Structures are given as structure tokens and as C-alpha cells.
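=== RUN LOG ===
request id: a7f3
mode: sequence -> structure
chains: 1
length: 315
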Amino acid sequence: MSAYVPHGVIPAVLLPFNTDLAIDEPSFRKHLRHVAGTPGISAITINAHSTEVGSCTFDEQRRVLDIARDEVGNRIPIINGIWADGSLEAARIARMAMEGGASALLVFPPGPFTLGQSPEMALTHFKQVASATDLPLIAFQYPLSTGQGYPKDTLLRMCEEVPSLSAIKDWIGNVAHHEWHIRTLQHLARPVNVLTTHSAWLFASLVLGCNGLLSGSGSVISDLQAQLFQAVRTNDLTEARQLNERIEPLARCFYAEPWVNMHNRMKEALVQLGRLPRAVVRPPLVKLDRVEVARVRQALMESGFVDEMAKSSAA
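=== RESULT ===
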């Protein structure tokens, strides 16, 4: 089994597209280099929500991993998402990711779980994935209300019966339950790290003691997230509060309803910062309207990105 343990600040990068909806490889490479060069991050994530993985074919996912490995794989671990409704397909993607040089796998819950799941179903899915690879697994913990989240007893069984399960990406959406994850999973005989993805209230989440964060907004503010994580870890709450003041306007903007547009808004932010040439998304997502674009611009200004926006406009 791999010795790598997912921890620390892990941005989930975006996937740029051309106007014909094909992957914009040059822009993706530039984006990867920018994010991976951020001091204080520990890994990057690809083939996840942020890269619109639900709209990508198997071959496109493999190409995304190939590009990431070629561009930044020699200096930072790559976490590859496993998005599949069936366990056999999830295992196939896991084998591809292992062969392609990934360091860990982020396992999304199967879509059919929205109709109901049992502990045996969850365990079977993870064991099927684990049997295909020796890479460490990260369970994406959804809110229980979605039907795709794992109840406490199920999660504990997963930690016990799937030895390669080494972390959860925690989106439980409930503060008390989130704290239970931190207090319980990180103190098991074989600890399982909690990587928060409560990016709308990141400061509060980190203060509870998460051993890391895995966030799509890291595609825009990986530097601020890394600084916030370090400030909290060193109990410098004055610095942490100041960083949170910068992060809050963008968190409020990115994670507004409808949540499905969160990464759409992040792409628009990168366009306004001059880091991407266009904010193209694949259907069923559609381009943001002018009101939304203006909100993104206002949030960037409130978060202190005025100088970078000015340089982008002047270029």
C-alpha cells in the first residue's frame, strides 16, 4: 500500500474549455503550474467537481491526468477523482489513475445512493475500488440529506474494513457532525484525516482541528487558503481572522445559490484576474449572466484583488 497520506491544503483545479467545448490544454497547463506553484499546498486534485468530471469521458479523464502528471507530477502529489455510478466502472477508473501516476483517489458516492443505500452497499463499492489499486482512498462525505452521505456507523465500518481509506473530504454540512468526524476519525487506532470542504465557512471549520482542506476555491485562492491553514495550525488567530476577511467575499459569491454554479463563478474569477482566457462550461451548465459576472467582479475587489485585476485589464 502507498505510504502517502492525504493532508494539508489541496486545491481542486478547474478545467478550461475552448469555445467548441474541447479541453483547452495550453490554458489547463498554465492553470496547473500557477496553482501547483503556491507555497504551502500539499497536493492538487483533478477529475473532480471542479473539473466538471461528470461531463468528461473516460478518455478525457485519462488525458487530464496525463497532462497534470506531465506538467506538475514531478513536484506535487496528484489526487484523481473517481466519479462513477457503478462500482465496476469506479474500479476501472481507479486502475487507470494508478497506472497514470496518481498518488491518491477521491471516491465520489455513486449516484444511485440518492434513492437509498445500505452499509453493505457502501462497503461493497469501496472494497471494489480498493481491490483495483493500492492507492490511498478519500471518501467524499456528502450531506446525509442527499442520500449520498455515509451515516456514522457506516463510515466507521468503512474505516475499519477498508484499510486503504485514509481520509474523508468532509461536506457533511452540519457543524456538530463535522466536529464528530474530526474528533472520532482522526483519533482512530488507524487515523483517518478529515479534509474539510466547507469552503463557505472555512475558518470556522479549520478551527475545529481538521488535518487538511480540499477545495475547488483553491483554484482561485490557494495562497489565501494555505496561509489561513498555517495561521490556524499555529494558533495565530489574529492573522487567521484577517485572512478570513479577505476570503469571505469570494466564499459568499462562489457558494451562493445555485451551488451548481460554484465552479462556473470560479472560472469567471480567473478570467477577470487574467489567469484564464475564457469562462466556458459544458452543458447542462451555461455561462453566467451579466449580473452574476458583476457579482464575481465585486467580490474580487472586496477580497483585495484590485491590483491583479488592473494588470489583467491593462494587458
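=== NOTES ===
The first helix runs from residue 25 to 36.
The beta strands are 8-11, 44-46, 78-82, 104-107, 137-141, 165-170, 193-196, 212-215.
=== END ===
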